[in-house]
Amino acid sequence: MLAATLALGALAGSAIATPSLTSPVDAMNLFSKRISSGCSTSGSASCHNTTKQTDLCCFESPGGLLLQTQFWDTDPSTGPSNSWTIHGLWPDNCDGTFTENCDSSRDYTDIADLLTNQGASDTLSYMKEFWVDINGQNEQFWEHEWSTHGTCYSTLKTSCLPSGSAKGAEAVAFFQTVVKLFKTLPTYEWLADAGITPDSSKTYTLTTLTNALKSASGVTPALNCDGSSLNAIEWYFNLKGSVIDGDFVAIDAPSKGSCGSSGIKYPPKSGGTSTTTSGGSSPTGGSGSLPSKGTIHASTTGGLLTGGTWSVQTLATYTFSGTSSSFTMSTSKGNCGVSSGQLTCGSGVSATKFSAVTSGSNLLLAVSGSTSFSSDATPSGTTQETVFTGTSHSKSYTLQIVSS
Ligand SMILES: *[C@@H]1O[C@H](CO)[C@@H](O)[C@H](O)[C@H]1NC(C)=O
């Protein structure tokens, strides 16, 4: 059953298969502000202990079968047209039964404030884009996910926290962990890499879909359908250590989901019609039209300077020419282009064709249909970070075009 160890953060966007349990990187140190559990991650994975575990702050029990659930919502469409969105992280018991609503004294309200006040505004901005409610009630959705599922984790009990932790620190850690784990599970990209992109005129067999996801991730997820349309996925894990900063061990889904074996539709999200290209979908701009000049803001903090680097300094003015489905852009330094996955603007740079994807009221920059960008670190002060396409560097974000 143990298929792969997922060291959070270290493997974002890349294949997660490793043949056996490896010694994981302490990737949680990448967070600017996070509490630490002090738990070892070298013991048994949850649901795999052979003796009774006594320290349930460092061993998740009874809910040791963890599901990272994602939505593909098309009616109405929710979230970016080229990404699945977060539903939650649920603790099932090892036999697949589960409990919910475990501690009403910790049913926190105002999750957004809690995250902001405890130094997790980067997590919050990511959630606003990728952990979105189908009816726009994000705050209620986050509160529900915490109170229904989050309060059931043994490793997130208040008594497990470092002394002096702020009220709600375990909920902040929960949201940070879910976001970090979700970034390692790019379902859209994994399907697109196998040539499977949303298309209202195609159907797939369950085997085609699960094989594509298994070859990218190393494990088989459970796929759920609404009628014959794909609309949710469950990625399964056991856990070594604490939900706060433990290692998620990817495993095969214990049973298949609700999709039938064939005739499965993968409908496009509206507000960005998808055209199939070899590199994935290239959604057109929908309602948001491309300005002729603007700045480019990162979803977490700061934005782009004249050379195409990421910084928190004053943002550069970008000039856009073309339409939202295909355009070039430049700064005072010169044309902008992507070469070897790296964005630069300067003289002698050959211009890349970019596209823009509408996400809510935002217009997101895309390369080959993907709106994911990442860097090795979050900039501060006068530092500048190289911008890479995709999610393979530790800090992932999207880039929003803002008209000036
Ligand atoms: C594993 O540890 C949990 C928590 O102490 C316990 O309930 C369970 O019985 C243990 N499993 C085995 C096989 O000892």
Explain the overall architecture.
Helix content is 15%, strand content 28%. It folds into two domains: 265 residues, Ribonuclease T2-like (Ribonuclease Rh, Chain A); 123 residues, Trefoil (Acidic Fibroblast Growth Factor, subunit A). It has 404 residues and is α+β, with helices and mostly antiparallel strands. It is built from six helices and 23 strands. The chain is globular. A hairpin with a 2-residue loop joins β14 and β15. The N terminus is likely disordered. The chain binds 2-acetamido-2-deoxy-beta-D-glucopyranose. It is found in: Cytoplasm; Vacuole lumen. It comes from Lentinus tigrinus ALCF2SS1-6.
List keywords for this structure.
single chain; 404 residues; alpha+beta; Ribonuclease Rh, Chain A; Trefoil (Acidic Fibroblast Growth Factor, subunit A); 2 domains; nine-stranded antiparallel β-sheet; six-stranded antiparallel β-sheet; disordered N terminus; binds 2-acetamido-2-deoxy-beta-D-glucopyranose
